[in-house]
Amino acid sequence: MIKQNSRDVLVVGVALFAMFFGAGNLIFPPYMGLLAGVDWQWALLGFLITGIGMPLLGIMAAARAGGTIEHMGSRVSPWFGLALSIVIILAIGPLLAIPRTCATAFELGVRPSWEGFPRFLFSIIFFGIALLFSLNRTAVVDKIAKFLTPLLLITLTWIILKGIFSPMGSITGSELEGPTGRGFREGYQTMDALASLVFAQIVIGALLLKGYKNVKEQVMMTSMAGGIAALGLGLVYGGLMYLGATAGELYATSIERTDLLIAIAYELMGETGMLSLGLAVSLACLTTAIGLTATVAEYFSSLTKGWLHYRLVAVITVVFSGVFATVGVTTIVNVAVPLLVMVYPVAIALIILTLIGGPFADRAVYTGAVIGALLTSVPEALTIVGLPLDNLDTLIGYIPLSGQGFAWLIPTAAGVAAGFLVRTFRRE
């Protein structure tokens, strides 16, 4: 039995690693390392919390809550659970993640070797293939993905080891204030903590098939498997951030994220390394786009009980994503910032409260935490999009840790405390 459990932990751990090992995420650690310089370890700490830690906790929390985003959000109210679910599905779908897969594939896989190729034409080809496979839903994509993950991992390991043993340059000074907080916020861009609330259903389904029907068993197995996934992701992200830090003497911080990754690959491994990385990332982005398109289509088809047909949602998703993808990775990343700044603190609060459970498992506590998180995250998001909130921004600036990017932390804790008091007085 112990041997079987160990085998199942390994299988689920590798699967978790593959799910979170998104090709689009690889552009963020090198750029963070470039910005952080000598403080890259502190930036890495923040990045790992939101890029690895919270996603793994998210799967455990979703398993404990019942397996879906709605289950977790419904601890505030049913309508909030539904609204949160829709926002997250759209964020990891056509609003942000799916267009970014295409833009990343173009900038890493096509532009370096075929500079004059039209971006819009690549978008049509990319999403034409994605639509074809998402409509047919064959096992071919799963087989390709299983082959691509090891290929991409081998390519990255090759580049990282070369960068460690033959550094591009010495690590220079930092341009960042509060590198841990900046790394924490940059980790939002992976969107893995949000995606984990969707992936949870897949993981729980796999555990059920293996005979783990008890929620405690599922959480325990997910925790152990998560350790395997976290180790692999931490090594990849840490290696890439170190490479970015060693590139400080070669590249300005104004460089595009995708250009930096390509430049590092070329500097360390020449044209062969650059092309190998670009090809592996592009194909991995395509399989990710196919999987996410299918996820979005299945979700809205199920939500509307078939009123919105799977095929219709898939077509709408790829058309919208194809148009948005033509603006480029940097624009998509910039558009993502306000939404992620608003949603992430709420998701983190719900994940932590769900895992703590006990006396905190009360609607008043969950509601207080969400309100506290939104009190600062909404103004921050509105400020990012350019709305004038000077007085409110000044007030938020007085909150401890706001300068490090954690303005939401104390209001969220205050909301939890207020909710706990309401719970206490209500029971007396």
Automatic annotation (TrEMBL):
Q: Name one GO cellular component term.
A: plasma membrane
Q: Where in the cell is it found?
A: Cell membrane
One annotated GO molecular function: L-valine transmembrane transporter activity
Q: Which domain of life is it from?
A: Bacteria
- Keywords annotated in UniProt: Amino-acid transport, Cell membrane, Membrane, Transmembrane, Transmembrane helix, Transport
Which parts pass through the membrane?
9-28, 40-64, 76-97, 117-135, 147-165, 193-212, 224-245, 277-300, 312-333, 339-357, 364-385, 405-425
Q: Where mainly found? A: membrane
Q: Which GO terms describe its biological process?
A: isoleucine transport; L-leucine transport
How is the protein disposed in the membrane? Answer: Multi-pass membrane protein
What the entry lists under PANTHER family is as follows: BRANCHED-CHAIN AMINO ACID PERMEASE BRNQ, BRANCHED-CHAIN AMINO ACID TRANSPORT SYSTEM 2 CARRIER PROTEIN
Family that this chain belongs to: Belongs to the branched chain amino acid transporter family.
Q: What is this protein called?
A: Branched-chain amino acid transport system II carrier protein
Specify the species. Natronogracilivirga saccharolytica
